[in-house]
Amino acid sequence: MGLLAALYERERSGLGQHVPHDTFRCADGFIVIAVITDNFWQNLKEVVPCAEFDDPKFDGQPGRWKGRECINDTLNEALSENTCTYWLAKLEARRIPCSPVNSFSQALSDPQVLHRNMVVDLHHPDGAVTRGPGNPIKMSRSSEESFSPAPLLGDDTDAMLGEILGMSVTEINSLKTQRVIA
Fold this sequence. Notes:
Elements: H1 3-10, E1 21-26, E2 29-34, H2 38-47, H3 61-66, H4 68-79, H5 84-93, E3 98-101, H6 104-108, H7 111-115, E4 119-123, E5 129-133, H8 157-164, H9 169-177
Antiparallel strand pairs: 1-2, 2-3, 4-5
């Protein structure tokens, strides 16, 4: 079981006052559906036809709230029969608020995430290039962003021991000689 599936099984993420407003399992992943008005409910009934949903008691939010377990279970069963892409297209066509639940790799390769420079290349002094998180804070008057890779092993040892811990150069050199530090 993947991380997303494990989290899904552990705790649902629904918004308390709206039903259905939760994460639902599809054949290949998860989607979020947010039915926040009765109109969205009517549209959802067209997208996911289930006899259980035709009961008039579910046409209003109070009835859906009382029947939330039945509704969520029925939706999970119906949605699991096809892919996230399939269901999202149908839901979006009926203007029902929905979204995929992305894995880390999907989220980090999303075109908007990349456009906003939220994943950046970090050039290491040893020549390697790694990817790291960008700065989520963007300033309108400055497009200047600078990123540095993590220091190499031992790069900041002398400064940390000397400036922060107050050790003398002699003490630091003694630790190096004893191979306590690099």
